[in-house]
C-alpha cells in the first residue's frame, strides 16, 4: 500500500546495522502506536477478557452457566429468536434498500439526490430519536391506531410492544447502512458495461440480471453482513419496542444484570453473542476481507 | 420504469416520515404521545431548558463527547502515522486491535466495563464513560485518519525537506495543513459517536454522569415524558443543519460508514 517510503530497515546496510527488530523505523512505529495499543489493550481487551473469565468462574469455576444456557428450551428460543429476527431485518433491509440504491444511482437527478439526502439524514439521526418516533406512530394514540379504528377495527389490534414493532423499528434504523453499502458498490459500476450489453442485444432486464446485479453483489454482501451483525447485538430498540415474549439475547443480558444480578450467566450469554459475532466476521474476512466492511 | 420510481419514493417516505414527525410532536400540548397533536404550544421547550434533569445530562454528554474526541485523536493520529507509513513487526496486530472495538456488540462491552469499573469507582463517573467511549471511537477515527494519510502525497514533504525545512517545520507547515480537513472530520465523527452512544452509558454512567441518550432511554422506558419530543427535535435539527451544509458545499455528500 505505502511501501514506497524509504525505510532504514529495508536497506541492506540498515538491516546489518540494526537488525529488523531494532531498526530506527521499527522503534518509531512502535513508539507512535504504543499509546493507542496500550489504551485499547488495558481498557478494552481487558474488560472483554474479564467477561469471559466471569462466565467460567461465577459463582464457581465450572461450565454451569453455559450448561444452563444451552440446556433450557427458553434460552434456545431466545437464541433462535435473535437469529431469525436478525435474518428477517436483513432481508427486509435488502428488499427495500436495493431498489432505493438502484434508483439513486441509475436515475440520479433531483429525485436521486433527494433520496440520498433522506438516507444520510436518517443515518445521522440518533436511533433513540427514531425509536421514539415509532413509539408515537404505533402507539395507542398514534396515527396507525386511529386509521385502523377508522377503517373499522374494533377493538383495534395492539401494534406496539411486539415483534412487528421491533422489526419495523430495526429496519428503519439499519436500512441506511444497507443502502450506503449497496450505493457505494453500484456507483463504481461503469454505465458503459450496460450500454455494451444493450448493444449486443440484451434487453434492459437481461442487462440488469447478467451485468449490473453481479457487479453490485459486493455491496449487497457488505450491507447484509453489517446489518445482520449490528442487529444480533442490538439492545435498546428491541427492549423499548418489543414485548416480553419476543426477547432477544442482548435484552436478556441486560435484564440479567439490571434486575437479577446474575453476573456469571449474563457473561456466558455475552460470550455466546461475542463468539457468534466474531465467527461471522471471521467468515466474512475469509471470503471478502475485513478491511472492506467499513469501506 | 415508473413503478421503480414510485417504489423508491415510497421507501424514501418510509425513511423520512418518522424523523419529521418529532417536530410537530415537540410543539404538542398533549401530555402523552398523541399524534396528530391536539393543540400547539412551546411549553415543553421551556420545560426542557428549565429542568435540570434534562440540562445536566445534555451538559454531561457535551463534556464527555469533547473529552472523548481529544483523547481519541491523541491516540489515533500517531498510531495512524505508524500504520500507514511504516511496515513493522506487529503491524497487523496493531491494526486489528484498533479496529476491534467496532466488532464487539456494545452490550458485551457494557457488561465488561461494569465489571471492571464498579470496584474501582469508575461507574457513576465521567472518566469511566470517557474511557469507554474513547475505546469505541478509536476505530471510527482511525478509519478516517488513515484514509486521509493514505491519500497524502509524500512528495510535498520531500519538496519541503529538500528546500531546507527541518522535520518539525515540514510537519507543521506542510503535512498538517494538508491533512487538517480529514483530521477535523475524524474528530467530528469521534464526537458524534460518543454523543450518540447509548448502551454503555445506560449501564455505567449512573446518575452522576448520566448522558443525554441515557436520559432519553429512561424517559421512554419509565415515564413517556413529552420533553423527549423536544430533545429529539433539537437533535434532528442539528442533523438537518449538517445535511444542509453538506448538500450546499458538495454536489453529493460523502459518507464514511
Write the layout of secondary structure elements.
The complex is a heterodimer of chains A (295) and B (257).
Chain A: H1 12-18, H2 24-57, H3 64-71, H4 73-107, H5 109-124, H6 127-138, H7 143-151, H8 163-187, H9 191-199, H10 204-232, H11 236-241, H12 249-260, H13 263-287
Helix pairs in contact in A: 2-13, 3-13, 4-5, 4-8, 4-10, 5-8, 6-8, 8-10, 9-10, 12-13
Chain B: H1 2-20, H2 22-26, H3 43-50, H4 52-85, H5 91-99, H6 106-117, H7 126-150, H8 155-162, H9 167-196, H10 199-204, H11 212-223, H12 227-249
CATH architecture of the largest domain in chain A: Orthogonal Bundle
Radius of gyration of chain A: 25 Å
- Unreliable parts of chain A: 1-18
Give Rg of chain B in angstroms.
22 Å
Taken as a percent bin, the fraction of beta residues of chain B is under 5%
Structural features, described:
- The complex is a heterodimer of chains A (295) and B (257).
- Chain A has helices at 12-18, 24-57, 64-71, 73-107, 109-124, 127-138, 143-151, 163-187, 191-199, 204-232, 236-241, 249-260, 263-287.
- With 295 residues, chain A is an all-alpha fold.
- Chain A has two domains: 1-57, no CATH class; 70-292, MetI-like (MetI-like fold), CATH 1.10.3720.10.
- The longest helix of chain A is centred in the N-terminal third of the chain and has 35 residues, at 73-107.
- Chain A is globular and about 70 Å long.
- Chain B has a domain at 52-225: Orthogonal Bundle (MetI-like fold).
- Helices cover 74% and strands 0% of the residues of chain B.
Outline of the structure:
By secondary structure, chain A is mostly helical. Chain A has helices at residues 12-18, 24-57, 64-71, 73-107, 109-124, 127-138, 143-151, 163-187, 191-199, 204-232, 236-241, 249-260, 263-287. Chain B has 257 residues and is mostly helical.
